[in-house]
From TrEMBL:
PANTHER family: POLYGLUTAMINE SYNTHESIS ACCESSORY PROTEIN RV0574C-RELATED. InterPro entries: Capsule_synth_CapA, CarboxyPept-like_regulatory, CW_Biosynth-Accessory, Metallo-depent_PP-like. Residues 125-378 form the Capsule synthesis protein CapA domain. This is Capsule synthesis protein CapA domain-containing protein. Residues 1-23 form the signal peptide. Transmembrane segments: none annotated. It comes from the Bacteria. It comes from Pelagerythrobacter marensis. Keywords: Signal. Belongs to the CapA family. The keyword Transferase does not apply.
Length: 695
């Protein structure tokens, strides 16, 4: 069985790098449209004024903005564009886009307005990344996957994992990650009695420093995987790389001690804690005569924060807690994060769930409940929509935050574009809005301004047009800035149901680029490659059969599920191709999947694009896994290549499963299956309301 390798169509500087392709070792030729004109404007994030004399670089070509902040650059045509903006007296910015996101019109690209933040004497920029491990599957890949880090080329291979995101890290006055792994160059044989233990070569610490990281939080549940031997090697490796650290040590006093530094003339203390002791013995936390991570119980967090704050130091607390893969922090985690700010902390950053959680303000200071993964080898789909978080502090007061959406693809962080960017920003708006935090759009990133009273005004209704053969319409993510979808009706007055998106890369715009390859699909009986003959956007998936039947299977099952009906839909092109959806479930309490079941079949009737939507009934119990595959064959064995685009898996709300609904995740509106076809859909919104009055 062959893993999916999607071929690269054009290399644009460092943005798209040559790599393995499905059908050959050569990328297809550049398209006829070799040069396009990119234009946009750069403004001040502080006052909105246009910025003159700023350098904008796109595709290796640069220009300076005029007196009105405008620029125009002739650049090579490409499916991906990276935009670098830099100017004297301002922090530089990096943005990435798929071509279709830039509104291509007659060879012209409109780049959204970019905001630059002014440098000031008392202002500091911090950049925070999520969980980092860098071992396990990087060197010992799963069957059929390529190895990313080789012994003979370790330094170069490890640096390649972070080179795309390094400019964002290096732009910071201080950059931080959660280093969730033991580091050692020797074979470690004495491990804690836990289900998951792992370690990586100390070169990982050197790579982090090379990429621009300054501090590694150690208060987590893997720093003590190999007990004192592993802890000694880890702390030595981090120190040798020049990284600051806190959160672990050979006794409690050393583990809870802060890392102290000065940034922009302000004295800062960094504290790092894990939220639980662990069940294994010896456990994972430091004690008076035992090594481990710093246990962040209520009393310890308050004690250590107060000690630093009373010494006139600004404080960052990084807390490793809450449940894995959960969209919300636990009440215990939230209580401890609030307590840290009450005790004097100026910024609180959460880790451990491996997925994104939302933001909240407390006493005017920002809490980020979970940053998700940054450099991690989890193949779980839900962990791959992530972010870097940029936070500007004016002295010790929060000034501004910027969400840089990232796609943890091929086990490495790269800029998220198209559907993956939408998934990141939609999720963060859905989880932050109920806590009073508004996230605005800025050139593909999300902006959080200083804490303000929530806007109680009802957002305006939105009218969405329905395609003639569509089964659903999409509520744009930008509409969630002010509120959440509360009701949808068609032009006949019929009330419609909402659904959320479970498959974020179904547009095939995030399967390649930046030398990272999606591992979501396998093929048996054929090969898959990107194709520019897309129904929407820039890419579709072209499947070339090598047998009379081709199976395209989802490698890893979806996990973030509801007890609700599901629709699997998409668009097919390939006259005569018969496509059958098959699916299987694993229900709560069961150890194995069900047998594969047929979900529906479509035969492409002509040479054009044809929509399909297969409805899967609500399961009898709560599902924990949902897996799909497509089987293509050709009556009469007249096999031929075919195209797929805009695949989607939608979980629909219904009365029984409505109690767990997160309203901000409502992306789709389901069109009526009977009666007159609607021409338009009206979506009514409710404003976000603060969950409490904690401030």
């Amino acid at each position: 069985m062959q893993s999916l390798r999607l071929s690269v169509f054009l290399a644009l500087g460092a943005s798209l790098c040559a790599g393995p392709v499905a059908a050959s070792d050569t990328a297809p030729a550049v398209e006829a449209e070799a040069v396009v004109a990119a234009h946009g404007v750069v403004v001040s994030a502080d006052d909105g004024a246009p910025l003159a004399g700023v350098t904008v670089t796109v595709g290796g070509q640069s220009a300076r903005t005029d007196s009105r902040g405008r620029y125009r650059i002739e650049v090579p045509a490409s499916p991906l564009y990276t935009v670098r903006v830099s100017g004297a007296g301002h922090y530089p910015a990096d943005h990435a886009f798929a071509r279709h996101e830039l509104a291509v019109e007659a060879g012209t690209l409109r780049i959204p307005p970019v905001q630059l933040v002014e440098r000031r004497a008392d202002r500091q920029l911090f950049v925070f990344g999520g969980d980092v491990m860098g071992g396990r599957r990087y060197e010992t890949p799963l069957e059929g996957e390529r190895r990313l880090v080789h012994d003979a080329n370790r330094r170069e291979d490890m640096r390649a994992l972070l080179d795309v995101m390094a400019p964002t890290l290096r732009a910071a006055d201080l950059a931080s990650v959660n280093l969730e792994i033991t580091l050692s160059a020797r074979e470690l044989t004495t491990a804690a009695p836990k289900s998951y233990v792992f370690y990586a070569h100390p070169e990982l610490a050197e790579t982090l420093a090379w990429a621009g990281v300054d501090y590694a939080a150690q208060g987590n549940n893997h720093v003590y995987d190999y007990l004192d031997q592993g802890l000694a090697d880890t702390l030595a490796a981090v120190a040798a790389a020049g990284l600051g650290y806190s959160g672990a040590g050979f006794d409690r006093a050393a583990a809870i001690a802060p890392w102290r530094t000065q940034v922009g003339g302000t004295d800062w203390s960094f504290l790092s804690f894990v939220g639980w002791e662990g069940r294994a013995q010896p456990n994972q936390v430091a004690e008076d005569a035992k090594g481990g991570a710093a246990l962040g119980d209520d009393a310890t967090i308050v004690e250590t924060v107060q000690a630093e704050s009373s010494a006139n130091r600004s404080v960052v607390v990084q807390y490793h807690g809450s449940r894995e893969y959960s969209p919300e922090p636990t009440e215990e985690s939230r209580r401890r994060m609030f307590a840290a700010i009450d005790a004097g902390a100026d910024l609180v950053i959460g880790h451990h769930p491996h997925v994104l959680q939302g933001f909240e303000f407390h006493r005017g200071q920002l809490i980020a409940y979970s940053l998700g993964n940054f450099l991690f080898d989890q193949y779980i789909h839900e962990t791959q929509a992530s972010m870097l978080l940029k936070v500007w502090m004016d002295g010790s007061r929060f000034a501004r935050a910027e969400i840089v959406p990232i796609d943890v693809r091929d086990y490495r962080p790269v800029p998220a574009v198209a559907g993956m960017r939408d998934a990141v920003l939609r999720r963060l708006r859905a989880l932050s809005g109920p806590r009073g935090v508004r996230i605005e759009d800025m050139a593909g990133h999300g902006i959080i301004a200083a804490a303000a009273a929530p806007n109680a005004a009802t957002p305006p209704a939105m009218t969405l047009m329905a395609a003639p053969d569509a089964a659903s319409v999409v509520v744009p993510a930008s509409a969630l800035a002010a509120g959440f979808p509360a009701e949808a009706r068609d032009d006949a007055g019929r009330q419609l149901s909402f659904g959320r998106d479970l498959l974020w890369r179904g547009d095939f715009e995030s399967h390649e680029g930046f030398a990272a390859y999606d591992r979501s699909w396998t093929f048996d009986g054929g090969e898959g490659a990107l194709d520019r003959d897309a129904h929407a956007g820039d890419h579709a998936l072209r499947i070339v059969p090598a047998a009379n039947s081709v199976t395209m299977a989802q490698r890893i099952a979806l996990r973030d599920l509801d007890k609700a009906p599901v629709t699997v839909g998409g668009i097919l092109s390939g006259e005569g191709t018969r496509l059958t959806l098959q699916y299987r479930l694993r229900l709560d309490g069961e150890k194995a999947f069900s047998e594969w079941q047929n979900g529906g079949t479509i035969t492409a009737a002509g040479p054009g694009w044809q929509r399909f939507a297969f409805d899967i009934p609500q399961p009898s119990a709560d599902p924990t896994r949902f897996n799909i595959r497509f089987v293509a064959d050709w009556p009469g064995n007249a096999r031929r290549p075919f195209l797929l685009d805009d695949l989607k898996v939608i979980s629909w709300e219904n009365g029984e499963g409505a109690s767990g609904v997160i309203p901000g995740l409502r992306k789709y509106v389901r069109l009526p299956a009977t009666g007159p076809d609607p021409q338009s859909i009206t979506v009514h919104f409710q404003p976000w309301q603060r969950a409490d009055s904690a401030d």
